[in-house]
Amino acid sequence: MPDFRLPDLGEGLTEGEIVTWLVSVGDHVTVDQPVVEVETAKAVVEVPCPFEGVVSARFGEPGEKLAVGSVLLSVGALSTSSPAQSEEPVPSEEPESSEYSGNVLIGYGTSDSPRRRRRTPRTATIPAARTAPGEAPGPAVAAPAAPTTPAAPTAPAVISPIVRQLARENGLPLHRIEATGPNGVIRRADVERALAARASSSGTSGAAGSTGRRIPLKGLRGAVARKLTTSRREIPEATVWVDVDATDFLAARAALPSVSLLALLSRFTVLGLKKFPELNSRVEGDEVVVLDEVNLGFAAQTDRGLVVPVVHGAHTLTTAELATAITGHATAAREGRLGPAAMTGGTFTVNNYGVFGVDGSAAIINHPEAAILGIGRIIDRPWAVNGELAVRKVTQLTLAFDHRVCDGGTAGGFLRFVADCVESPITALADL
Q: How far apart are CA 75 and CA 49, in angstroms?
């Protein structure tokens, strides 16, 4: 029977955490049928099996991490024999009824190299030892059969995704939770009881007040934590900001219903990077590498935490195309459908933290990029217009930049250019 191993998930990922098994032992699977959901540091992906046959064993439980190359499940051949056929199987290099596609996460490093072949074990018969003349021959002795591998235990039954998420966020393996629901189903009360028991046991040896809820820094959350830590440790950043009259910016948004405020700001950002390409760069060793392509990332809040989808080749897109790409990426990110390739390779990031009701923020640069631009909430504020006081829609633009790639003059010039586009968006878009 062929073993299906966790494939290369791409982008340097070396492990994945099992989220949900989509098949059970004994199920029939077809070629390229998704068999398990795996969470990586980039996204939750469905892993398809390249074989057809019957699942004979599963390896790993929900919440368990497996390294790339570890066996996920074993698939046996479909039964085509009948009792009238010979009891002894004919050894074969590969089950004749098993099919193989090789299409495991296409585009992420799946190898089509030949797999190691196995022979079907058989019970050998050892002939009786030779006897001396006149002695009766002894009976033939059967060699002991090769030990069989027991089938993997069935995964704990969990119906509610909320219960599964609660256990995963608190680092509770499902197979260690005592189930009290019908037919062995794990209920929310079971998870909460296990959490209370763990808090009680840890509280007896810990300091007062140290028994709060623990959230493991793993998966996407862990990847974000590592990147932010690296950014703070390696990048000598500086921050500049400016208040902007966004009244016409909102009017332009109303005139372009298919273009969001973030898409408009992204368009102005791309134009600014053409004038100030030093900010579309990264530091590699003792060199500043100014990049030719603008791969624009944008911060998006999802149920799994903060993610940064990337629109590759943003400098080649029209305003409408850029808006469509941003909307599509944001939707896919919130639904957990965004693959690893769509969240890597960014060269500059924009962030609309105004949706959280704040005016400004000294954002952390998305390492290894050189800068991040943010926009705060847009509110009514007094503003001088042609020498007279008026109430206008005002926002704040903030730019955090790597001081190694440019000085304040370049950063200020870029920020002022984007601010001018926000204040006069029709003029900025006139040539597009």
A: 9
Taking the C-alpha atoms of residue 6 and residue 73, their distance in angstroms, rounded to an integer, is 9
Domain end call among 175, 203, 231:
203
Q: Are residues 197 and 232 in the same domain?
A: no
State the amino acid at position 388 in one-letter form: E
Evaluate if pTM is beyond 0.70.
no
Residue 329 maps to which CATH number?
3.30.559.10
The active-site residue, picked from 175, 329, 367, 403, is 403
Q: How many CA atoms lie within 13 A of 356 on its CB side?
A: 12
403 is catalytic: yes
| Locus of tokens 């060199």 | 287
pLDDT tens, 155-203?
567 656 677 778 887 888 888 888 888 778 888 888 888 888 887 766 5
The span from the CA of 38 to the CA of 19, in Å, is 5
400 shares its domain with 295? yes
Q: Is the peptide bond before 368 cis (omega within 30 degrees of 0)?
A: yes
Query: Model confidence over 377-432: pLDDT tens digits?
Result: 999 999 999 999 999 999 999 999 999 999 999 999 999 999 999 999 988 887 55
Last residue of a domain, one of 149, 176, 203: 203
331: its two tokens: 């939707």
188 and 70 share a domain? no
Domain extent for 60: 1-80+92-111
Q: What does 3-53 look like in DSSP terms, one character per residue? A: EEEPPP-STT--EEEEEEES--TT-EE-TTEEEEEEE-SS-EEEEEESB-E
**Number of domain units in the chain:** 3
The H or E element that residue 255 is part of is: helix 247-255
